[in-house]
Write a structure and sequence with these properties.
The complex is a heterodimer of chains A (about 260) and B (about 290). With about 260 residues, chain A is α/β, with parallel strands linked by helices. Chain A has helices spanning about 45-50, 75-80, 95-105, 110-125, 125-130, 140-155, 170-185, 200-205, 225-230, 230-235; strands spanning about 5-15, 20-30, 35, 60-65, 65-70, 80-85, 160-165, 190-195, 210-215, 215-220. In chain A, helix 3 runs parallel beside helix 6 (about 140-155). The longest helix of chain A is centred in the C-terminal third of the chain and has 17 residues, at about 170-185. Chain B has about 290 residues and is an all-alpha fold. Chain B has one domain (about 1-125, about 140-275): ABC transporter involved in vitamin B12 uptake, BtuC (Orthogonal Bundle). Classes of the chains: A alpha/beta (about 260), B mainly alpha (about 290).
């Protein structure tokens, strides 16, 4: 992909002596939604943390807008236009919702633009306007997730890294949040790298998908094609094709192992 | 009656000093989860630096105060950047020993640089008093109270109404998220150290005319620590209220209880608080994680 906005090559990251991702390569084209699927412990969050600079890779490169950014501090990466929406929301609990949003725009100097964008996120998530003066710690989990996404949006990023936005939310809310992610992608021209366990949702909104297992990328394709693959259907979407294997499920092996 | 009012005034003034030093403890603790036992010694350095600028270099009082506070604040920031940043995440024991050690180093530095004599800081408020309703109101004590109130107002506005102040709060509440917002967290922590050291220096300058300056001035830090615990470590209003409470208790026990009680009053209160209400008056138990 020559016009990739984000390109990751042969990335290896360790937690002490334990290898979390082993030689991962992928690319995110400008304007796309790309998803990385995988079970618990597959290394999805580690990939995002390495891209945004919280963790430093042992090997490999991360190229964003043609510039190598691996090893930069996370605040510097944010200033380049790459916003990370962390797993588990991570709001500032004792600041009000509005102060949280303004902190999202910390790197910006254009007060008018910040005010306009504040209106914009209130339009995406009206509940945040109603809660503007409340402390963020008092919001429900879903509202905190909305705040976390909005806060990242306030930096006016070129690209957003979304880490499990559906975690712990009611199915209806998950759908709402994913709809907004698609709107943000289309209306604000924000490229999205989405990491998810909810494969069904992720594959339906994303353009391209990678499947991560134990630190390796084992499959990649357009989401439309991934949705048709039997392995994806069985192991990530929980759809069983009866007749072919039926009760003899234990005999099936994942094709890529 | 007059003696009671007199004690209220003096107790509040002393309490303000404890409160300011306790404020420094709390600011640093909230931001970095370090307890800086050298806080009292930073106060001592503030008083000495101010004395030096006035008596050795012949600056006016206000210029000298500004210079002293600025240099101690800068020193605090450098201390964070050069030394304390390296122990973040290490066991609390290491940090406690490190800051106690730093305090000892500061005291030695002071006695080498300024000598171990006892100095008086000449100020525009020295040895002046006004009689108000039968109470002799010493200008030195009034300057402490007024200075504390002004300083607290400035800090309040700074932390709640300026972008950088709110960013410091954000960095204290969730360091990782602050990084994700592009907030330079390390710089914020250094600034918090600068503010804490600056506040300690102001406390030292305010205290100097009433208590004289010597290298052991910093041991007030221990009483201020008691004040911070009393207020509920981690609460800024708690630190100030705790300081005032300890100040008043100390003065009253000095006046009405047998000799010697004055010096232990603060610690008796500390022990009682830890036994009865360990989270302090403005307890913050479990508030950090929401």
């Amino acid at each position: 992909m020559p016009d990739a906005l984000l390109k990751v090559e042969n990335l290896e990251t360790y937690y002490g002596p334990i290898v979390a991702i082993r030689g991962v390569s992928f690319a995110v084209p400008r304007g796309a939604i790309v998803t990385v699927l995988g079970a618990n412990g597959a290394g999805k969050t580690t990939i995002l943390k390495t891209v945004s600079g919280v963790m430093d890779p042992q090997k490999g490169t991360v190229t964003f807008q043609g510039r190598e950014i691996q090893g930069l501090d996370p605040d510097k990466v944010t200033r380049l236009g790459l916003s990370h929406v962390p797993e588990g929301r991570e709001v500032f609990p004792f600041l009000t919702v509005q102060e949280n949003l303004r902190m999202g725009a910390y790197i910006r100097e254009d007060a008018d633009g910040v005010a306009r964008d504040l209106e914009m996120v209130y339009e995406y998530f009206p509940v945040l306007r109603a809660r503007a003066e409340q402390r963020a710690g008092q919001l429900s989990g879903g509202e905190q997730q909305m705040l976390s996404i909005s806060r990242a949006l306030m930096a006016r990023p070129t690209m957003m890294l979304l880490d499990e936005p559906s975690l712990g939310l009611a199915p209806k809310l998950v759908k709402d949040i994913f709809d907004i992610v698609v709107r943000i992608n289309r209306e604000r021209d924000v490229t999205v790298l989405l990491v998810e366990q909810n494969a069904n949702m992720a594959l339906h909104i994303a353009d391209y998908g990678y499947v991560l297992e134990v630190g390796r990328i084992v499959m990649e394709d357009t989401c439309a094609r991934l949705l048709e693959k039997p392995d994806i259907k069985e192991f990530y979407l929980g759809i069983k094709d009866h007749g072919v294997r039926g009760t003899r499920r234990w005999k099936r092996k994942k094709m890529w192992r | 009656m007059d003696i009671i009012l007199q004690l209220v005034l003096n107790g509040l003034a002393v309490g303000c000093i404890y409160g300011l030093v306790a404020l420094g403890f709390v600011l640093i603790y909230k931001a970095t989860e370090l307890v800086n036992f050298a806080q009292g010694d930073l106060m001592m350095l503030g008083a000495f630096t101010c004395y030096m600028f006035i008596v050795w270099h012949g600056f006016g009082y206000w210029t000298a105060v500004a210079l002293a506070v600025a240099s101690v604040a800068l020193f605090g920031a450098l201390l964070d950047a050069a030394v304390l940043r390296r122990v973040l995440g290490q066991p609390q024991f290491a940090v406690v020993m490190l800051t106690i050690g730093l305090g000892a180093v500061f005291r030695s530095f002071a006695s080498i640089t300024w000598g171990s004599e006892i100095y008086t800081l000449p100020t525009p408020f020295s040895a002046r008093a006004t009689m108000v309703g039968g109470v002799s109101v010493s200008h030195e004590y009034v300057s402490i109270i007024v200075g504390t109130v002004l300083l607290c107002a400035v800090l309040y506005v700074f932390f709640t109404h300026t972008r950088i102040g709110v960013a410091m709060q954000a960095a204290s509440q969730n360091q990782l998220a602050a990084y994700y917002m592009g907030i330079p967290v390390k710089l914020m922590f250094s600034l918090i150290w600068a503010i804490s050291a600056g506040v300690a220096a102001i406390a030292g300058v305010l205290l100097a005319p009433v208590s004289l300056i010597d290298t052991n001035l910093g041991f007030i830090g221990l009483k201020a620590f008691a004040a911070a615990v009393l207020g509920g470590f981690g609460s800024i209003p708690g630190a100030l209220v705790g300081g005032l409470t300890i100040g008043l208790i100390e003065l009253y026990s000095g006046a009405y209880l047998p000799q010697g009680f004055k010096d232990v009053a603060a610690y008796v209160v500390l022990l009682l608080v830890l036994a009865v209400r360990p989270q302090g008056m403005f307890g913050a138990v479990g508030r950090k994680k929401v």
